[in-house]
Amino acid sequence: MESQTFQKIYTKLTNITKATVTLKASDVGYDEMALVHGRKAQVVKLMGNQVTLQIFAGTEGIPTNAEVTFMGRPPQLKVSEELGGRFFNAYGDPIDGGPEVEGEIRDTGSPSVNPVRRMQPSQFIATGIAGIDLNNSLVSGQKIPFFADPDQPYNQVMASVALRAKADKIILGGMGLTNDDYLYFKNVFENAGALDRIVSFVNTTDNPPVERLLVPDMALTAAEYFAVDHNQNVLVLLTDMALFADALSIVSNRMDQIPSKDSMPGSLYSDLARIYEKAVQFPSGGSITIVAVTTLSGGDITHAIPDNTGYITEGQLFLRRDTDIGKVIVDPFRSLSRLKQLVIGKQTRADHPQVMNAAVRLYADAANARTKLENGFDLTDYDERTLDFAKEYSEQLLAIDVNIDTDTMLDIAWDLFVKYFTKAEVRIKKEFVDKYWKK
Amino acid sequence: MEKNNKTTGKVAGIVSNLVIVEVDGPVAQNEICFILLENERLMAEVIKIVGVNAYIQVFESTRGVRIGVPVEFENHMLEVTLGPGILSRNYDGLQNDLDKMEGVFLTRGEYTDPLNREVKWNFKPLANEGDTVIAGSWLGEVMENSIPHKIMVPFKMEGRYTVKSLAKEGQYTVDDQIAVVADDEGNETPLTMVQKWPVKVPIKAYKNKPRPFKLLETGVRCIDTLNPITEGGTGFIPGAFGTGKTVLQHAISKQAEADVVIIAACGERANEVVEVFTEFPELEDPRTGRKLIERTTIIANTSNMPVAAREASVYTAMTLGEYYRSMGLKVLLMADSTSRWAQALREMSNRLEELPGPDAYPMDLSAVISNFYSRAGFVYLNEKDASGSISFIGTVSPAGGNLKEPVTESTRKAARCFYGLSQDRADSKRYPAIDPIDSYSKYLEYPEVQKNLAENMGDEWLGNVLKARDILLRGKEAMEQINILGDDGVPIAFHDRFWKSELIDFVILQQDAFDKIDATTSLERQKYMLLSVLDVTDSEFEFKEFEEVSTFFKEIINLYKQMNYSEFESDEFKKHESDLQKLLKTKMK
Ligand SMILES: Nc1ncnc2c1ncn2[C@@H]1O[C@H](COP(=O)(O)OP(=O)(O)O)[C@@H](O)[C@H]1O
Ligand SMILES: [Mg+2]
């Protein structure tokens, strides 16, 4: 419980802005939590005896004589096995009607792992989705977002990835989730019989947007508890990080900071890195893997949010609708898993890297052929073959509804190579061609 | 005691990691100070002074810090500790030895000694009693991982000194006295193997700094062959995320012909640092056969570590480089990414409410970057016939991949080689994605470099390089024509021209950083391959229709690729080569 000793009550606010209040107070720590007029707040500036507090729910209706008490502590979460199966809001309070969680109190936003204590990630995560496993293989301890337009089924894909990933715990950090999406996650997890493996921290569109800023830290504090204290493999789902970043910009604009690109705060990179870098493989066996969603506006990945994200995460999974097959695919051009080389051809079949590269190169040739076609030029025989290949490749391997094991993925790719191309066109190391090229 | 001279102060304001301190005495710009919490000491640097208020940037989180907390000023700027035992270490941006820290998580306020004080080094004197010495003079040497590490007169010592006594060859710790020197007035100074130096001040203990003139072999074909960098040269790698900056830097740091490699991971991913210290102890230096880690020092200030220390990290790395350069060594310095350092400057400048320049970066960004790059270079030392160098390659992470942003533009003015990574090339997996047309090495224009190339690579080399570039350019033009007019709307010669440029692209430019053999190419092999490929591009072939052109060249490329994957001059290599010759004959005019 919160320490009740000597809680001084202040009742005189000197300044109120849209997001903050200022008052005279003493012996206040930076980052400390407070209650202002019953709303949760955090110290963002100390100047002499003037304390400025950010009110997460906004300052609407707060009077100058509002009651202010300081909690003498930063944001915290109580951690124990009891977290499993529970739903919380951004402050870590239960929203599922269940009792308070009993456990050890941990500060959120804990320090970073010493880089020399990290282990190199090395465990392949199979999702069954070839667009991921074949071309952009995930590794535990990795951090990777889906880049998707708002109308794409990213939450569904993320839920299937989560359930197939064989994680010991799944921690959902929902930011600006619609109520429908919240219920969707709840349902899917329940139906999979996985609820006790799942902990959720949810800020829905009904909640004040600035509260979202607390969600990733809450989720990651829980994740660190399971990964460090129990050596578990924890998968953290963060959706939608674009809405998290929007909340950052709301705060910085209200605090009159100089915006940089796309009216985002100049510290966006550091703010996002602090979260994503919590992904780690611990030496003791536990790990934290982060799969996030960053929605795009109009597919623009040069916008500051996806751009900074791409610079931080270990790749990105780009969802796109392929009109040729009428399905959503994991786009092989814009997608990337930077950790894939740690596992492909090692934990998967040795021909994996070369098959992956050859298929993507041939798919790129198909894109060129399509451009030719659109510009009204005749296609060569090779062009025609690449187009036919691309369609089957997309349908059988890139579509997000695929669910097969990696060997099958590789076999399918070889089948397509043999069906449409010559060995010289495929350009794979001879040893693999000798082994897998079967007429 | 010394404590009495220290200026002290009290915290008067806090906004994130910017803290205002009311001071009771003199303070200096960039002076180091500590915020004294009950159980922790938080290190900070003065960045602005207004009246009695010192504005300090704290190298740690300020969570829980209160108004009135005492602060103590240290009388010196941010310094590094220099001495044997720096190689193979993993430091943070402030030169704390990360391996000495306890626990899995970093603890706020924990600072560790960069050197090992117990280990004994075998010291061999190089100077003699009675010698006249100045800052940087070599007094003796110890072997650090098989690299001769010179023990020098501290850089801070001004003027001339006479060596009064010098330790005999034997085992000493870094703190043991190894010499006594005296100035003109006879004031004696005892010296150990350790000295300190402020990171923001360049070490200038050298005779002169000529223009770089020697080729630095990196093993990366599209650098060495097309746009070479020099010993003591500077270069930068701008590229959107995922275009291959880090992989390229790592490749260079593994293969380059350097005595010492310093890698500054500045505000980037922690896992990339893990990769280095997991792999480097296993990998061999292709020249010495010793493990790569033995010549490498890592400065890790990853993106989740305190922002203010990011700026410090690149200076720390440069200063360590200057230290080793003063020993007559070839140092290769890598910083990934200099944009993160610029962003750290921007965050602080915004907090200080300074007038912002373009994209809210500080006004003096360009000057700061130029200043930093100018610390690299080739130098002749004061020691007889000795020279040393720092070659510096930084990456730049342009927002939105747009090269017209302030950090890229400022760096372009400072660095002599430009290795621009192209998104298109990366998307089509043409790695390394260095754009062959836009990239340049200004060193190719230096007469002294041209002379050095002629001596090492042959008189024809430069001509061949320029020819290869010309073929690439003409191929690109042919491609554009084909795209406009259609495959059969252009003469077959256009297809021939295009595919000849593709040949150079696939065989010379593209290089698989993850293939054991292809990853590194010796200069000898590079020369062989370029000549071989140019033989093909010089040949005239007989084609009946345009489709034949691509089919033929794809087969040629395929055979060349197999050669690239084979050990140079091995039987396998020769077999693919003879297959290639047979194939070429079939279409040769
Ligand atoms: N030379 C190369 N050979 C093969 N793959 C490469 C090469 N360079 C880059 N890549 C691929 O591109 C990915 C991103 O490269 P990286 O250097 O991390 O990009 P950046 O630092 O520019 O964001 C790597 O994980 C790898 O898959
Ligand atoms: Mg990188």
Oligomer state of the chains in this structure: heterodimer
Helix content of chain B: 25-40%
Helix content of chain A: 25-40%
Strand content of chain B: 15-25%
Task: Count structural domains of chain B.
Answer: 4
Mean pLDDT of chain A: 93
**Head-to-tail CA distance between termini of chain A:** 71 Å
- Distinct ligands: adenosine-5'-diphosphate, magnesium ion
CATH class of the largest domain in chain A: Alpha Beta
Q: What is the domain total for the residues of chain A?
A: 3
Q: N-to-C terminal Cα separation of chain B, in Å?
A: 90 Å
Largest sheet of chain A: 10 strands, mixed
CATH topology of the largest domain in chain A, by name, is Rossmann fold
Main beta sheet strand tally, sense and closure of chain B:
9 strands, mixed
The number of helices of chain B is 14
CATH homology superfamily of the largest domain in chain B: P-loop containing nucleotide triphosphate hydrolases
The CATH architecture name of the largest domain in chain B reads 3-Layer(aba) Sandwich
Rounded radius of gyration of chain A (Å) = 25 Å
Q: Globular, elongated, flat, extended or rod-shaped: what is the shape of chain A?
A: elongated
Indicate the radius of gyration of chain B in whole angstroms.
Answer: 27 Å
